């Protein structure tokens, strides 16, 4: 046992050691910083609502004019829907739920209608929502028969004593609360079917290989700031094409895919879920803001472009702080996203060259 004096010396040494580390060293831990990690941009100011439609790559020319219009219209409708609510004095929680509902109903995105297929050619849907004011949250995983999983996640938060429900129990909970049964066929789209067939034709070279995301994952999410300066976040997804039955990604995991705390930030992530869970990505952005006092742009870029990439995955996030500064970092070439400012100005960003690493 060290003597009391020796203990004091050891503690003083530890304090000196920790004090000697810069904030960013502490933040990055032992993770190697990729040499080409982009510096965080300034972010966008005055934002009240932002949505994303998944991280990936959309080079210019990869969409037909009709497809481009459909994506931009979908994002714009989601932003308008949430903006109207905020303008009417409704809470950020309503805005993120309803904005995500629009994207869940849009077959272009991998959530609700248009969700990807698992190995058994089924849809298993994941979603989570969090209220920054009191950190109440709700989540569902592996849902089969609920049209809007984000609304079910909110229902779990508000109508059950629980935070997280999965599988049959979650679908039953929906039915007991009057949510109409949705047959699996509703979620079907040709595009996702073709992606499943392509994945079956090209199985991973090694058994047990990491699940792969398609280049534009299509997961959806929203973050919002309301008139009471409360923030909220929501994420909804069908997961990864050809995922194992029962696989759950980060999107429904509070702290990994979704997090909101009025003291720091509202975050919705997109990327290889396994790694975002291991990196507790959404909460880590909040933690860097809370403990290392980083601004949202730096905290979000540190997690997405350094810590998550060091764990071996790519992806992105939208992160909105309580002052209305939006960061949308990504280690993929792009992240489909859009935002609306407090004055109602809407911007949608699809192509890689439209999505700077802020
Ligand atoms: N994060 C999602 C998942 O792993 C996928 C994605 O965002 O593309 O389920």
Shape: globular
CATH class: Alpha Beta
CA-CA gap between termini: 51 Å
Task: Report strand order across the widest sheet.
Answer: 4-3-2-6-5-1-11-12
The class by helix and strand makeup works out as alpha+beta
Topology, number of strands: 12
β-sheet strand percentage = 15-25%
Largest sheet: 8 strands, mixed
Strand-and-helix sequence, N→C? HHEHHEEHEHHEEEEHHHEEEE
Superfamily (CATH H level) name: (Glycosyl)asparaginase
Q: Tell me the Rg in angstroms.
A: 20 Å
Mean model confidence by pLDDT: 89
Bound molecules: aspartic acid
Helix-strand layout with pairing:
Layout: H1 4-20, H2 23-28, E1 47-56, H3 65-87, H4 92-104, E2 125-131, E3 137-143, H5 149-159, E4 164-166, H6 167-176, H7 190-201, E5 220-225, E6 231-237, E7 258-260, E8 265-271, H8 273-278, H9 281-291, H10 296-310, E9 315-321, E10 326-327, E11 334-341, E12 346-349
Parallel strand pairs: 3-4
Antiparallel strand pairs: 1-5, 1-11, 2-3, 2-6, 5-6, 7-8, 8-9, 9-10, 11-12
Helix pairs in contact: 3-4, 4-5, 9-10
The structure holds aspartic acid.
Aspartic acid (ASP) is lined by residues 54, 213, 217, 219, 237, 239-240, 249-251, 270-273.
Characterise this structure.
Residues about 1-35 have low confidence and may be disordered. This protein has helices spanning about 5-20, 25-30, 65-85, 90-105, 150-160, 165-175, 190-200, 275-280, 280-290, 295-310, and strands spanning about 45-55, 125-130, 135-145, 165, 220-225, 230-235, 260, 265-270, 315-320, 325, 335-340, 345-350. The radius of gyration is 20 Å and the shape is globular. It contains ten helices and twelve strands. The strands form two sheets. Strands 4-3-2-6-5-1-11-12 form an eight-stranded mixed β-sheet. With about 350 residues, the protein is of the alpha+beta class. Helix 3 packs antiparallel against helix 4 (about 90-105) and helix 9 (about 280-290) packs across helix 10. A hairpin with a 5-residue loop joins strand 2 and strand 3. It has one domain (about 40-350): (Glycosyl)asparaginase (Glutamine Phosphoribosylpyrophosphate, subunit 1, domain 1).
């Amino acid at each position: 046992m060290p003597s009391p004096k020796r203990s004091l010396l050891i503690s003083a040494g530890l304090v000196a050691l920790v004090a000697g580390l810069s904030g960013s060293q502490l933040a990055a831990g032992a993770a190697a910083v990729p040499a080409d990690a982009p510096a965080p941009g300034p972010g966008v100011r005055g934002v009240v609502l932002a949505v994303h439609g998944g991280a990936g790559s959309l080079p210019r020319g990869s969409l037909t004019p009709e497809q481009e219009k459909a994506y931009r219209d979908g994002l714009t409708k989601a932003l308008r829907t949430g903006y109207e609510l905020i303008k009417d004095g409704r809470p950020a929680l309503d805005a993120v739920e309803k904005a995500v509902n629009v994207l869940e109903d849009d077959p272009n995105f991998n959530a609700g209608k248009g969700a990807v297929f698992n190995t058994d050619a089924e849809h298993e849907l994941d979603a989570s929502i969090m209220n920054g004011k009191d950190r109440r949250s709700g989540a569902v995983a592996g849902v089969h028969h609920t049209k809007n999983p984000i609304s079910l996640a909110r229902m779990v938060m508000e109508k059950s004593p629980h935070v997280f429900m999965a599988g049959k129990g979650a679908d039953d909970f929906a039915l007991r609360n009057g949510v109409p049964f949705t047959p699996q066929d509703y979620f079907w789209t040709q595009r996702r079917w073709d992606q499943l067939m392509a994945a079956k034709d090209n199985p991973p070279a090694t058994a047990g290989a990491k699940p792969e995301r398609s280049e534009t994952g299509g997961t959806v999410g929203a973050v919002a700031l309301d008139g009471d300066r409360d923030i909220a976040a929501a994420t909804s997804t069908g997961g990864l094409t050809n995922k194992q039955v029962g696989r759950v990604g980060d999107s429904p995991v509070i702290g990994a895919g979704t997090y909101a705390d009025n003291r720091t930030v509202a975050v919705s992530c997109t990327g290889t879920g396994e790694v975002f869970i291991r990196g507790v990505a959404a909460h880590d952005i909040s933690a860097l803001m809370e403990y290392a006092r980083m601004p949202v742009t730096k905290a979000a870029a540190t997690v997405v472009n350094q810590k998550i990439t060091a764990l071996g995955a790519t992806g992105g996030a939208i992160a909105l702080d309580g002052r209305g500064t939006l960061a949308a970092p990504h280690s993929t070439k792009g992240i489909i996203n859009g935002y609306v400012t407090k004055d109602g100005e809407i911007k949608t960003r699809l192509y890689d060259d439209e999505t700077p690493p802020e």
